[in-house]
Amino acid sequence: MAKARIRNHVRVLREEHGLTQTGLAGQCGCTRQTIIMLEQEKYVPSLSLAFAVARAFGVTVEEVFESGEN
Amino acid sequence: MSLARKQALISGSVWLVITVIFAVNFFSIGAEDFASPAGTRARGLAGAIILPGYIINFFILWWSRRGRRAGDLDERDKAIELRASEQTMIVILMVVFLFGIGLYETHLESGTVPVGWLYLLSYGMVALVSLVHPVLSLINDFAGHADG
Asked: Who among A31, A40, A42 is closest to B74 (CB)?
C-alpha cells in the first residue's frame, strides 16, 4: 500500500485570516519553525496540533489537511 | 531561530572545539606514550577539557534560555530530539565497532594493545556523543525529517 502524503492549506488559510507565522504558532502552542515546516509540507503534525491549527482557523481538520497517495 | 536550533548550534560548536582539542592533545603524544609517565600532562589536559566542557555547555544553554517561556520546545522539537538520539546511538555503535575492529586488526600480531587507545575510546566517545547529537538534531531540523 502506498504511503499517504499529507497535504495542507495552512499557508492559504493563514493569509486569508491575516495571521503571521508567529501569531499562528502562538495560538497553536508551537514554534514558528514548526509552522514553516507545516506550510512547506515537510512536517506531519500530531493529531493535537492538527486540531489546534484547525481551531485557530475556525474550520475542521479536513478543511486544513488532506491525504494524498504518493 | 528556534530555541532548539540555537541550543543545537551552541552545543555543537562547544563540543566541536572540545573534541578537536582533545584529539590534538591525544595524537600529539600518541597512544603508546599517553599512558606512560611522559603522558601525565596530556592526561591531565584531557580530563581538564571534558568536565569544563560540560560546565561551559550547560552555562551557555542556560544563558540562551533567559527570558524564554516554558514550552519553547514543541512537539516537532521533541520528535527531532528523539530521532537524533536514535541516530546518535547507531553512529556511536558503528564508531565503537570500527574502532575495536581496527585495533584488533592493527595489533593482532603483537597480541597487545597500547592502553592509551582505551583512554581515547572512553573519553573520545563522551566527546563524540555530545558532538554528534546536536549535529544530527540540526540535520533533521533543516531537512524536515521528523513527524509528530
From this structure: A31
Q: Which structural domain, as residue segments, surrounds residue B49?
A: 3-143
B102 in any annotated domain? yes
pTM of the model: 0.82
Gyration radius of chain A's alpha carbons:
12
Is residue A22 less than 8 Å (CB to CB) from chain B? Answer: no
Measured between alpha carbons, how far is B138 from B83 in angstroms, rounded to an integer?
A: 11
Is residue B148 included in any domain, yes or no? no
Q: Please, what's the largest Cα pairwise distance for chain B?
A: 60
Residue-by-residue pLDDT tens, chain B, 148 positions: 778 888 889 889 989 999 999 999 899 888 888 888 888 888 888 888 888 888 888 887 777 777 665 556 789 988 999 999 999 999 999 999 999 999 999 999 988 888 889 989 988 898 999 999 999 999 999 887 666 6
Is B129 a member of any domain?
yes
